[in-house]
Specification:
- The strands form three sheets. Strands 3-2-1-4-5-6 form a six-stranded parallel beta sheet, with helices on both faces.
- It is about 35% helix and about 15% strand.
- By secondary structure, the chain is an alpha/beta fold.
- The chain is elongated.
- Helix 5 (about 145-150) packs across helix 6 (about 170-195) and helix 6 crosses helix 7.
- The protein has 14 helices and eleven strands.
């Protein structure tokens, strides 16, 4: 993969199925910016309202790809006239995304009541961890605490060891951002059909719990044990898990169906072996005999240790055994399949995931580099017809407190 040339600084018009949709994002961290990035990737004109001084996370804005395809203005909501400038934008928007604690937006003058008074059709998207009400609604938190209380964190990892932390992908982005995007797009459809906006309360605890719907059904049916490493899909099954290789790498195995399992055993070279690795009745019957799973796991693990990850990848690549190499973040863009699909892209010297999903009639793409705070004020003031944004530039207010 070769690096693309640094793009021209000019902002291009939107492309994608949400072209023409206007979004105001009140700057925050985590799931809110990611949700707004997804809307921007789909073609929406997303204007991020940054605070003076930035979010204070220490990352160079040039590398924050969650701000790609967006434009940025800087407004101090705590300064006189700050809320009015933002409300001027909101009056012309279809969707608002905010991630403050409950009550903060109201105190700043940009809560749902203030916004709907100016724009009754507005979809007001609220992104929080605990939700807008409940005993913990006003408490601070992060992804790991949210998924802990939903039962999903407790599902992940090996038995006898603390639960494994899935970065912040499960809570912030899967249970948070994606549910917010589904919610605001559904509410936008309703607003365009009936002319009335509404508030979308997207709580990470709600979305993450919702993700476990199938598991709860299996639990009720007696097909899932409420403990780690004891089930078909949580690493308890020896033909659905990961194994180390001779060079310190890992292979992922998902040979669930009988035909895939048989192919897995054949290519691994143990189809005619018994539980101890010697000639015997074979391991085919171990698939449904949980009493043989520990012996099967030991034999599979020992066999994988005999070759490197690259060697095993070559063995399984042309098969339906459902086996794949476990790649690192830096390796993934060079995977032959992902490279052929363009799953990753280089833009402005940054390798990053390309927009997803894909559309046949309204293709998407990375149009612009991450928005620099305040860099697009002139263009937004003109395009959205909000002249008071320019007055904020000419007369900067005090720096907002953290």
């Amino acid at each position: 993969m070769t690096e693309a040339q640094v793009p021209a600084p000019a902002r291009s018009s939107g492309q994608g199925p949400l072209t023409g949709v206007r979004v105001v994002e009140l700057a925050g961290i985590g799931p809110g910016p990611f949700a707004a990035m997804l809307l921007a990737d789909l073609g929406a004109d997303v204007v991020r309202v940054d605070r003076p001084g930035g979010p204070g996370l220490g990352i160079d804005p040039a590398y924050d790809v969650t701000n790609r395809n967006k434009r940025s203005v800087v407004v101090d909501l705590k300064a006189p006239g700050g809320a009015d400038r933002v409300l001027d934008l909101i009056e012309r928007a279809d969707i608002l995304v905010e991630g403050f604690r409950p009550g903060v937006a109201e105190r700043l003058g940009v809560g749902p009541g203030d916004c709907h008074a100016r724009n009754p059709r507005l979809v007001y998207g609220r992104m929080t961890g605990w939700g807008q009400q409940g005993p913990l609604a006003d408490r601070a938190g992060h992804d790991i605490a949210y998924i802990a209380r939903t039962g999903t964190l407790g599902m992940i990892g090996s038995p006898g060891r603390p639960p494994a932390v899935p970065a912040n992908l499960l809570g912030d982005y899967a249970g948070g951002s994606l549910y917010l995007v589904v919610g605001v797009l559904a509410a936008l459809h309703h607003a365009r059909a009936g002319g009335t906006g509404q508030v979308v309360d997207a709580a990470i605890v709600d979305g993450t719990a919702h993700l476990s719907a199938m598991i709860h059904g299996m639990l009720a049916a007696g097909a899932w044990q409420d403990r780690r490493g004891a089930n078909l899909l949580d690493g308890g099954c020896p033909y659905y898990g990961t194994y180390g290789t001779a060079d310190g790498g890992h292979m992922a195995v998902g040979a669930l169906e009988p035909e895939f399992y048989d192919e897995f055993l054949r290519l691994l070279g143990i189809e005619d072996e018994g539980d101890e690795g010697e000639a015997g009745p074979g391991l085919a019957g171990a698939r449904t005999d949980v009493t043989r799973w520990p012996a099967l796991r030991e034999r599979v693990a020992a066999r994988f240790k005999e070759r490197t990850r690259e060697e095993w990848t070559a063995v399984f690549d042309a098969s339906d055994a459902c086996v794949a190499p476990v790649l690192s973040l830096r390796e993934a863009p060079y995977d032959p399949h992902l490279a052929a699909r363009g799953t990753f892209t280089d833009h402005g010297g940054i390798t990053q995931p390309a927009p997803a999903p894909r559309f046949s009639a309204t293709p998407t793409g990375v149009r612009t580099a991450p928005a620099r705070p305040g860099a697009d004020t002139d263009d937004v003031a003109r395009d959205w017809d909000v002249p008071r944004l320019l007055s904020a530039l000419r007369h900067p207010q005090r720096k907002a407190s953290s």
